[in-house]
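STRUCTURE:
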């Protein structure tokens, strides 16, 4: 029919005279060109049919009259046409689809990402995303933050990304609506907290190398503090529960990093470990950790970091005076490692008993006999980072023993192997998760590399390659990657005196 589009291709592709692949909400050409796709062309229009030789009459459109007037006019014309077959004018009214609202566009984009794998990334602090589509209509700031996230995700997947946060107009729009929400009655709502969390994830996507400080996560923690103890989670709100779990998990990414922040509390390690035991009980019961628990965990690692830094100083100047100090440090580290082992063993025992951790068999040709499966990635993160603290303490003790006595301790090596195998048993579970949005901590994996034999080293390398697949931190060739892992194992366990330990 003349004047009626033959395909639903978007208007941008038609103006450029290229074939549109019609993959909505945005076609491939618009995504590649970083353009806003106008969507499918409407196939249904008001059409005028005119008898040859007669004067052309004006066709009534919905823009010229209100809907009721147009309908009455069309009814009158249709009646005349029916009374006079072959009459002068016939008008066919074909309804046009209503343009989607901003909220509907945000929902469609987010649902499209969820359907293509985003919902599998619970370990990466976005498990709450599955609850967002039905909440976007309730919050302008959440809708704008989701728009920014979808744009940041598209840029992250682009082989030639822009990368700079300020280059995106969606960022300024999201900041403006978020500022208005924080200044009003919506400041402590779950939707506002989710908007801040989406801003944090978007900024992380655009800053792949972590060169800038992400202030949005600190804003999320501040909102949780203002909401009260445990973030005042509404147990009846699925979004609120999932959101607080993800944010608490995100907070644990900074366990081994020294920060000048009020949430990082330095406490005696004996007291800190007692509080860690309570935090582990909450994690094994699938409850969110309180911020004071995270501060205690940070206090444990701060004490461990101090001992490792002292060890590095000794490596630079291994004089006789410091030898006596190193023996004292080793005794302190030994007591800490023993307490860490008791707590990690208790965590595994409780998790297995309650069904939150499950031991499954590996393939017959694999060097591991069993593997772990976790009911929630937070529990895996808590377990694997605790194993990392044991690896650091044991490795420093082993290095000190070798320097003092001129030989390696077989007992310490056996304990290192036992902890490394526990880390490797978590590997298949990590590989079942999508690493696209944010990196799972690779430090525990790196720390096991030197402990492994040749076959185990290849397994560790494959695991690190998978976790790094979307971030590109590793060198290109496999041989260079082996050297990189060896170097990182030294750095992360404090045995590189030229690299400050955290």
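SEQUENCE:
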């Amino acid at each position: 029919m003349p004047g009626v589009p033959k395909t639903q291709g978007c208007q941008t592709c038609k103006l450029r005279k290229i074939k549109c692949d019609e993959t909505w909400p945005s076609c491939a050409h618009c995504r590649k060109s970083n353009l806003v796709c106008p969507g499918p062309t409407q196939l249904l229009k008001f059409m005028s049919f005119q008898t040859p030789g007669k004067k052309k009459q004006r066709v009534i459109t919905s823009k010229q009259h209100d809907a009721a007037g147009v309908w009455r006019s069309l009814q009158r014309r249709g009646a005349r046409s029916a009374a006079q077959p072959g009459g002068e004018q016939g008008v066919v009214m074909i309804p046009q689809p209503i343009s989607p609202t901003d909220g509907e566009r945000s929902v469609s984009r987010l649902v499209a990402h969820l359907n293509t794998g985003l919902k599998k990334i619970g370990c990466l602090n976005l498990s709450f995303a599955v609850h967002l589509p039905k909440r976007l209509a309730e919050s302008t700031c959440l809708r704008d933050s989701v728009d920014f996230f979808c744009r940041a995700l598209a840029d992250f997947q682009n082989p030639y990304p822009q990368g700079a946060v300020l280059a995106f107009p969606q960022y300024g729009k999201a900041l403006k609506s978020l500022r208005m929400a924080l200044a009003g009655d919506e400041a402590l709502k779950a939707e506002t907290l989710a908007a801040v969390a989406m801003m944090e994830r978007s900024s992380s996507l655009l800053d792949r190398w972590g060169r800038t400080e992400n202030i949005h996560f600190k804003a999320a923690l501040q909102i949780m503090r203002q909401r009260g103890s445990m973030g005042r989670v509404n147990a009846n709100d699925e979004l609120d529960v999932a959101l607080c779990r993800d944010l608490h998990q995100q907070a644990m990414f900074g366990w081994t990093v020294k920060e000048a922040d009020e949430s990082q509390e330095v406490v005696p390690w004996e007291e800190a470990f007692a509080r860690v035991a309570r935090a582990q009980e909450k994690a094994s019961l699938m409850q969110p950790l309180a911020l004071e628990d995270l501060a205690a965990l940070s206090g444990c690692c701060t004490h461990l970091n101090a001992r490792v830094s002292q060890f590095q100083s000794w490596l630079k100047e291994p004089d006789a005076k410091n030898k006596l100090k190193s023996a004292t440090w080793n005794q302190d580290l030994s007591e800490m490692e023993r307490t860490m082992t008791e707590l990690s063993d208790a965590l595994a025992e409780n998790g297995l008993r309650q069904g939150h951790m499950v031991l499954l068999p590996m393939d017959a040709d694999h060097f591991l006999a069993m593997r772990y499966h976790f009911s929630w990635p937070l529990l895996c993160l808590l377990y694997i980072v605790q194993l990392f603290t044991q690896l650091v303490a044991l490795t420093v003790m082993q290095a000190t023993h070798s320097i003092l006595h001129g030989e390696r301790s077989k007992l310490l090596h056996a304990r290192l192997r036992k902890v490394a195998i526990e880390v490797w048993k978590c590997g298949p579970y990590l590989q079942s998760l999508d690493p696209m949005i944010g990196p799972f901590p690779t430090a525990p994996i790196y720390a096991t590399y030197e402990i492994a034999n040749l076959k185990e080293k290849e397994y560790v390398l494959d695991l690190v390659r998978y976790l790094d697949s979307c971030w590109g931190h590793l060198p290109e060739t496999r041989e260079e990657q082996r050297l990189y892992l060896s170097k990182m194992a030294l750095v992360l366990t404090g045995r590189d005196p030229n690299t400050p330990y955290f």
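REMARK: Confidence is low (pLDDT under 50) at residues 54-67, 77-91, 119-123, 255-266.
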